Amino acid sequence: MQPSPMVFGLLESELPWVTEWLFFFDSEKALVVAKEKEVRLRGRRYGDAYMLPEQMTKYSGNLICQEHMIEDYPNYDERVMLLVVDAISRTPANATAVSFF
Question: Of 8, 55, 56, 61, which residue is 20 to 30 A from 14 by alpha carbon distance?
């Protein structure tokens, strides 16, 4: 399903909270947009970059974003850390994720 450019733009403006919807409409375009957004959000103590990698990994198979979440974990505020752990648990299990847990 291809959304109109206006719908995609509205969804894009609400990232990272609507990541799943963006990928539902246009996974190829969403992957490009989500990667750019993740770069801008990484490293913020109260940031929401952890919301992006689950869908990015699901549609691309690339685990780099999972690694980014694990690398950034110590920098998050303790109130966000549980959300990051939950997001990591929803990405594929691999040696990196297992060693994190």
Answer: 61
pLDDT digits 0-9 by tens, 43-62: 888 878 888 888 888 888 88
List CB contacts of 24: < 8 A, sequence separation 6 or more.
1
CA–CA dist 83, 88 (Å, integer): 9
Tokens 């752990």 found at? 85
User: CB within 8 A of 96, min separation 6: which ones?
Assistant: 63, 66, 67, 70
The predicted model scores a pTM of 0.79
Question: Per the structure block, which two tokens stand in for 29?
Answer: 């375009």
Q: What single DSSP character describes residue 74?
A: G
The answer to whether 38 touches 56, Cβ cutoff 8 Å, is yes
